[in-house]
Amino acid sequence: MRTLTRPRRRYGHDPAPSRTAYRLTRFWLSPWLRWTVTTVLPVCALTGAVGFWLMQPAQQQRIVAGATQIRASVEARPEFQIRQMAITGASPVLAETIRQRIGLDFPVSWFHLDTHEIHDTVAALDAVADARVTVELGGALHIDVREREPVVLWRHDGALEMLDATGHRIAYIDRRDGLSFLPLVTGDGADAAVPEALALFDAGKPIMKRVRALMRQGARRWDVVLDRGQVIELPETEPVSALERVLAMQDSTGLLTRDVAIVDIRDPARLTVRLGPAAAENLETTRSFGKGIVSQ
Questions:
Q1: Could you give the C-alpha distances from 43 to 32, 49, 50, in angstroms and in order?
Q2: What's the confidence (pLDDT) of residue 7?
Q3: CA distance 14 to 145
Q4: Which of 95, 83, 97 is nearest to 141 (CA)?
Q5: Fold classified for 191-283
Q6: CA-to-CA distance for 204 and 201, rounded, in angstroms?
């Protein structure tokens, strides 16, 4: 006798993925997720492991010791050794001063040289106008110096200095021996007016053998000091023109060869002459004699 219920059909395995599996598969196919899982996460894991390893004090000491040893071995190589120093453009005295000021003990590694510091040290010397520091092939430190040229001597406050054409100090000296060819300027502020002083020395070439010094007065004007105690007082403005005017009078009248103590041309419109003691006494005697004749 057959049953009245219909037998249940048996189906095979359904190959279609479940909804959850489908969504996970689609999610995995997104580019940013694949890049994160395949690249970012491994890099972060590796970085974290390396960082943790480097945080260990023993590892840090080992790394520092290794780096120091490598650096020392590189610095000690012959091609990086500086064995000598050459100085050009400087006098023997200045060259010796530069060597003492730098104070290098050769050989020295190229890595231990600071050319900028050496340049600043050399350029800070009064006698140096400019300097160039280079390291040449073959292990030589080359310092090329442009030395300041002394043009005048400046006497002030009991000291004697050599100055260049800009008024910059070159060196202190004790005596003028051997430097008599350099003209002398005196007085406060004379160093700031060296260009004007040079122009006066150039204009005064006709009487240069008699010029003893240029004296700065009040840091604003010059006096020309001659031998026999004569003085030419120049104005604040256009002193060269005023001196040329006095020299023209010297050529025409022999003014400076007479018994004159001071030639005052501070006022360019009027020249005043102060006589020397003998000339003044002679003039006074002449006036007295003239008065006596008139009174008779």
A1: 15, 10, 10
A2: 57
A3: 95
A4: 83
A5: Rossmann fold (3.40.50)
A6: 5
- Contacts of residue 210, defined as CB under 8 A and 6 or more positions apart, other chains included, come to 226, 227, 228, 230, 256
Bridge partner residues of 217 (DSSP): 221
Looking at residue 282, its pLDDT comes to 61
Q: Which residue has the tokens 């008139």?
A: 294
Residue carrying the six token digits 């008065």: 291
Helices (H) and strands (E) in the chain, counts: 9, 14
- Give the DSSP letter of residue 206: G
Start-to-end CA distance of the chain, whole Å, equals 199
Pairing between β-strand 272-275 and β-strand 260-264 as defined by DSSP bridges:
antiparallel
Q: Which residues contact 262 (CB under 8 A, 6 or more apart)?
A: 230, 231, 232, 233, 272, 273, 274
CB neighbours of 177 closer than 8 A, spacing ≥ 6?
Answer: none
Cα torsion for 194, 195, 200, 203, to the nearest 10°? 150
Query: Domain-by-domain residue ranges, the chain?
Result: 78-147, 191-283
How far is residue 130's CA from residue 124's CA, in Å, rounded to a whole number? 9
Block residue for tokens 């020309």: 224
For the stretch 240-285, pLDDT in tens is: 999 999 999 999 999 998 888 999 999 988 888 888 766 556 656 6
What's the predicted TM-score (pTM) here? 0.67
Q: Any residues with CB less than 8 A from the CB of 28 and at least 6 apart, and which?
A: 34
Cα 242–chain centre separation: 37
Query: What residues have CB less than 8 Å from 294, skipping those under 6 apart?
Result: none
DSSP state of 158: T
Give 158's contacts (C-beta < 8 A, 6+ positions apart). Answer: none
144 token code pair: 């090329």
Which residues of the chain, if any, have pLDDT below 50? 289, 292-296
The domain over range 78-147 is classified in CATH as 3.50.50.60: no
Q: Could you give the CA distance from residue 107 to residue 9 in angstroms, rounded to a whole number?
A: 100
How far apart are alpha carbons 228 and 231 in whole angstroms? 9
